[in-house]
Design a protein that fits this description.
This protein has about 190 residues and is of the alpha+beta class. It has two domains: about 1-35; about 40-185, Trna Endonuclease, Chain: A, domain 1 (3-Layer(aba) Sandwich), CATH 3.40.1350.10. Helix content is about 30%, strand content about 25%. The protein has helices at about 10-25, 30-35, 40-55, 135-140, 175-185, and strands at about 60-65, 75, 80-90, 95, 105-110, 115-120, 125-130, 140-145, 150-155. It has a five-stranded mixed β-sheet with strand order 1-2-3-6-7. It has a four-stranded antiparallel β-sheet with strand order 4-5-9-8, covered by helices on one side. The longest helix has 18 residues, at about 40-55. It is globular.
Length: about 190
Amino acid sequence: MPCEDVGGERETTVRVANRKLADWLGFLPQLAWKYCFMTTLHIGAAGELLVQYRLLKHGVDSARLTTDSGVDLVAYSPIVATALTIQVKTSAVASKAGGKGAMSSGWFFAHDCTADLLALVRLSSDSVWLFTLAEARELAQQHSQKGARQLYWYTDPATAPAGARLEQDMQEFRIESRVQQMFLAR
C-alpha cells in the first residue's frame, strides 16, 4: 500500500526519497513501505530504544544522552556496579551489497569512537548485536582514510560470495548473549 500524502512538502520529499530508495534496493512493497515515513532520525531513535528495551529485559538500566557526542546510551548494571557507554548504529533493512549484490547488513562507525561498546541494529528483524570497540575495529572489513570503518555481513548463505562473513557467524555477538558477559557476570 503506497504512502498517503498527509503533510507538507518536506514530508512528501522524504516519502518520495524513501520510495525511490526502496524501489532501487528491490524490496518487497510490504517491507519497504513499513519504513516510508521514517527519517534517519526516526530510524536512529528506534534503534536506541530497541537496545534500551533489550537491556532492560535483562535488568540493565540505560539512559539516552541528549547531545550527539559519539555516545548514545549509558548502561548500568547494579550487579557489576559499572557503567558502560554505547554508540548505536541502526539500519532499517538489509540491502544489496554494492547496490546489486547479495543481501547484506552493514554499518559505518568512527575508528576514534569514544564509547565502550558498539551496538548494531537492524530494525526489520529487531536484531541487535553488541561489540566492544576493540572487537568492532578488528572485525571491520573496510577502513577509510578519514577514519570511518564498516562492519558488514551477508544475510543469506545461499547467495553470499564464497568465504564471506555471514550473519549466522555473528551469533555470539547477539545482545542476548553479550548482556550476560558484559553486564551480569561478576
